[in-house]
Amino acid sequence: MELFMALCLILIFFFIFLICKFFLQMRNQCCYVLAYECYKGPDNRKLDTETCGKLIMRNKNLGIEEYRFLLQAMVNAGIGEETYGPSNVIAGTEESPNLADTLQEIDDIVYGTLDKLFDKTGVSPSEIDILVVTVSMISSLPSLPARMINRYKMREDIKVFNLSGMGCSASVLAVDLVQNLFKTNKNAYAVIVSSESLSPNWYRGKERSMMLPNILFRIGGCSLLLTNKRSLKHQAMLKLKHSVRIHAGASDEAYGSCTRIEDAQGYCGFFLTKSLPKAAAKAVTMNLRVLVPKMLPLRELARYAIVSCWRSKSKTPSPEAGLNLKSGVEHFCIHPGGRAVIDGMGRSLGLNEYDLEPTRMALHRFGNTSAAGLWYVLSYLEAKKKMKKGDRVLMIGLGAGFKCNNCVWEVMRDLDDVNVWEDCIDRYPVKSVANTLFLEKYGWVNESRNEQGVIANKDTRFGL
Question: Which one is catalytic: 335, 405, 419, 435?
């Protein structure tokens, strides 16, 4: 009998130990964003209509048909007059990029955002426990994280992760990585730096599907400070609720939808296939199958199940039983990859223009800034004072491979920092994102059908 009682007590204490261990682990699994900073370039790097026109005319590989294609694409891309380009492109040396220009571009973005981040939060670089850097298109030696550690004299035991080739969804991927690292690192600070290197990757050929990234991609970046310290909960801006990553690279169609290749003339660039929208839609669907049950309330899931069941048994045609994502999310941060991407996501997710406004305006003002783009969208919501305590924000990141990385944030307090929108937020939203200035200035390429005449007069027409 005594042996039996002893075994029972051991089992009871064992179960108590497991329960305590579970709750202690749960306490360490929180992930808060304390602050973030987005990069805003100097005025002398703006790619307005005139600068873009000169840039196009410098490319001797282009002819009248390419001019017409570019004109139509630039008018309809949803890009405004104040986006920022690489310094070597502005200077006219894109034909001969060098390492010094490339590293200077990255340094401007990284150090510019990190200096502001440390100054705003009062956190010292020596307190950082985890550093994650996501820059896809450059690999230097020493690495980019090593440059940051040297600049800010960070600790020798800092955990460093250098993620390259992850594409436009890399910042959400980095958040998921940090969340998992927080499970085994108590009371830690983490910094995420996301940007892209455009200086050595500006396409100089004439393939139409490879010219589109030149129209869409612009200089940008962001730095985030995260922590799992519960004592800083009341200082936090956001709390991570859910994170789901999907990789559809097993599909040949999805894998090849966005790749970096050389064209027939040997020029490197991003090749975007017609299957890209299909690959993106499939990846988003796969992701939401996992994420939706976690983020939507039970009543919405039950409604969807009942309506779907009734519709399958009904013999009369009836509307599809779509899920209402707004029942579990107040705000949407969709990757500002381009006007077509935003339109497609809006249709597939059942979003209206109010929901898509932050993404459209971020694309219009800053362009496609790759992995940092989602944080420009979030900063628009904050500058417009739309995010209130308790609101939930869905971030949808899309990237080559093909990947869809999504996460849901809870707003911890009312947010109203204008960030990089300080000098222009009063002008937004704009009524139309179509850039008609290109059509007004260069519409003559559609009027003339005499290629020789156009080429002979192109210098005067473009003001060169």
Answer: 335
Distances in Å between the Cα of 403 and the Cα atoms of 97, 135, 197, 247, 303 are 29, 16, 20, 5, 30
Q: What is the pLDDT of residues 417-433, one digit of tens each?
A: 989 999 999 999 999 88
Active-site residue among 201, 222, 228, 247?
247
Global pTM value: 0.89
Which of the residues 364, 405, 407, 435 is marked catalytic?
364
Cβ(331)–Cβ(358) below 8 Å: yes
- Left (φ > 0), alpha (ψ -120 to 50) or beta: where does 340 sit? alpha
CB 178 within 8 A of CB 226: yes
Q: Angle 170-182/373-383 helices, nearest 10 degrees?
A: 90
Residue 335 designated active-site: yes
242 an active-site residue?
no
Question: Does the annotation count 168 as an active-site position?
Answer: yes
Buried b (16+ CB within 10 A) or exposed e, 127-148: ebbbbbbbbbbbeeeeebbebb
Query: How many angstroms separate the CA atoms of 444 and 326, rounded?
Result: 45
Cα–Cα distance for residue pair 71/448, rounded to 1 Å: 14
Q: Which of 331, 333, 407, 435 is catalytic?
A: 331
Q: Are strands 221-227 and 32-38 parallel, antiparallel or unpaired?
A: antiparallel
Q: Which of 31, 52, 168, 404 is catalytic?
A: 168
Contact 55, 198 (CB under 8 A): no
Rounded Cα distance between 270 and 261, Å, is 6
Q: From the CB of residue 265, how many other CB atoms can be counted at a distance below 10 Å? A: 10
Measure CA of the first residue to CA of the last residue in the chain; give whole Å.
100
- Exposure of 35 in the CB half-sphere (CA atoms within 13 A): 16
pLDDT tens readout for residues 91-121: 888 888 888 888 999 999 999 999 999 999 9
| Token pair of 353 as six digits | 């223009």
Cα–Cα distance, 447 to 148 (Å, whole number) = 52
Residue type, 458: K
Q: Measured between alpha carbons, how far is 305 from 172 in angstroms, rounded to an integer?
A: 30
